[in-house]
Design brief:
The protein folds into two domains: 85 residues, no CATH class; 98 residues, no CATH class. Helix content is 44%, strand content 25%. It contains four helices and eight strands. The strands form two sheets. Strands 1-2-3-4 form a four-stranded antiparallel β-sheet, with helices on one face. Strands 5-7-8-6 form a four-stranded mixed β-sheet, with helices on one face. Keywords: Membrane, Transmembrane, Transmembrane helix.
Length: 208
């Protein structure tokens, strides 16, 4: 049941993303600074959509004498097209966001990870094309590559699409303008360090 609820929420997020995309609005940016990662993916999704359209036409011809099977396949094909559109829309309207005290790392409708700046030990511009699946690592590749690597001082909890939990100490992600994100994140980390140094002795730690 938990997995089913997670999948339903994911589908709802895709539909909401379609509406936001149609209205040219971004999700969850607020007073933060957005960094997109979907550049170039429109052509890829359009290619997949074209293949689905060809398949839909082909199956309608092959199944024209079997109306029940034709209707079932048609519904599945239309859902696939809707899913592809929603996936691209979610990538477009749900960018990474840098706030004053945290970095929000996202991928379409199924990854939404908030990393407090105080837990980022290092950020580097790093293009990686081959990704394994090691414990404590999250790789959010776009076009089979990531362009930034974040090393964390403490684990950050990440919940998968089906609700499972993973504790992360290293995150690799992609941004269309990776240099700008690295620069902005480096400046934010320096400001965070300055605030900590200037904090009066005995001041309580900020809530996480």
């Amino acid at each position: 049941m938990r997995a089913a609820r997670c999948l339903i929420r994911h589908e709802i997020r895709l539909l909401v993303s379609l509406a936001l995309w149609a209205g040219r609005r971004l999700h969850g940016v607020g007073d933060g600074r957005a960094f997109g990662y979907a550049r170039g993916q429109g052509a890829v999704m359009a290619g997949f959509g074209f293949v689905c359209l060809v398949e839909t036409f082909t199956m309608s011809v092959l199944l024209r004498d079997r109306p029940t099977a034709h209707r079932v396949v048609l519904v599945l094909d239309l859902y696939t097209l809707l899913f592809l559109g929603g996936l691209y829309a979610a990538m477009a309207v749900r960018p990474h966001v840098l706030y004053g005290d945290e970095l929000r790392v996202r991928y379409a409708g199924h990854v939404d990870l908030r990393i407090p700046l105080e837990r980022i030990a290092a950020v580097r511009r790093e293009r990686v094309h081959t990704h394994g699946r090691a414990d404590g690592e999250l790789n959010l590749a776009v076009g089979s590559q990531t362009s930034l690597t974040l090393e964390l001082t403490e684990p950050v909890a990440h919940f998968t699409l089906l609700g499972g939990r993973r504790d992360l100490t290293l995150v690799r992600l992609h941004a269309d303008d990776a240099d700008s994100l690295v620069q902005a994140l480096t400046q934010a980390l320096e400001q965070e360090l300055t605030r900590e140094r200037n904090a009066p002795p005995g001041a309580p730690d900020r809530p996480r």
